## 1
Amino acid sequence: ASVLKEVEQLGIPKMLIWGRHDRVLKPEYGERIHQLIPSAEFHWFEDSGHLPNFEAPDRFNQLCFDFIAKT
């Protein structure tokens, strides 16, 4: 948790992407991490598990491109 607090203090944009059906790092972990890094953009992938970049690559890539473009 202390590392995540340090991440929150970084003066850089941050984004979290989490699969709602992740069985490796459960959704509760995503919610908790977002609580510790509230400045991060947070995106749920409702139909994905642990690998939304493979399960929904078009949406994942578009989020990344948009995030990079605005930062």
## 2
Amino acid sequence: DLRHFGKVQYFQKGKGREIDFVLDGRIGLEVKTKGISRDYNHLRSAAGKLGLKEWYVISKEFVEAPGFISVVDL
């Protein structure tokens, strides 16, 4: 469904960090059942190295923190 919003890619550096979805080469999206701060920090680091403008952790269980989006909000 993300293809409706632009080009969708996946990123993984070797066997290390990965980003589930990179939308239009500018937005990183990491999908978790329950995102935690560590997930956001890893995503922020990987996104920064790729030069992404925005990054979000999308989680089924809501976490009220900057950079987290609840599936209910989508």
